[in-house]
Amino acid sequence: xxxxxxxxxxxxxxxxxxxxxxxxxxxxxxxxxxxxxxxxxxxxxxxxxxxxxxxxxxxxxxxxxxxxxxxxxxxxxxxxxxxxxxxxxxxxxxxxxxxxxxxxxxxxxxxxxxxxxxxxxxxxxxxxxxxxxxxxxxxxxxxxxxxxxxxxxxxxxxxxxxxxxxxxxxxxxxxxxxxxxxxxxxxxxxx
Length: 191
What we know:
Elements: H1 9-21, H2 24-46, H3 52-59, H4 68-77, H5 83-100, H6 111-118, H7 130-148, H8 158-161, H9 163-173, H10 178-190
């Protein structure tokens, strides 16, 4: 599985244009796929560096970041979205699933999908139809996900952020290795 790379504002604009040009089914499926991909980029930017094996295990089919639903849960758990955005993301996912798992021709006005689109936002969203509401809310979500991933803010180990405390803890719990740890720490700081 290839590691994901950051997107540009121009790519997001082009993606939204592509979503607008799709059929209703295409807008839902392609738009959700783009959101899924963008969320993976942001999650990757927030986590500690992973080698290829760990990356593939995390984002692989059975990994914690392997499904769209799991990415939404991780996004919320990492504090990358609030409750309102979290619910809207799951709403987009549910709409995608309706379109993706039914063979008959569907539109945003199909009763089972219309109900989901109507539930996407508690705020008044003044647009002429459900298709535009879906695309409008999806565009807002894509923009927020993009903005969330602009800075590279990673979770770091205590060894990186508070190395002296980390070494002190190691020495306290493994006193038999204290002199070795002192030497490693001294050599590490000499660089």
